[in-house]
User: Fold this.
Amino acid sequence: TNDKDGNGWSVNGEFRPVDKWSILARYDKWNITNGDIDKKNLIYGIAYAYNKNVKFIANVINYKEERQDTT
Assistant:
């Protein structure tokens, strides 16, 4: 094993309420086995399709890392 072994999962989605606009979100959760570290990541935002080749995206990233107490 190496120092980055672990497991986790991710889910994401996109909702298109009106033409050219979309709301997007992604949630990740994983655990690094060595060091007992839990990581959570939430990304959400909006997007506007200017044309078929250009899309403007504004997003927010919320990252959290917690070390497990092994005592």
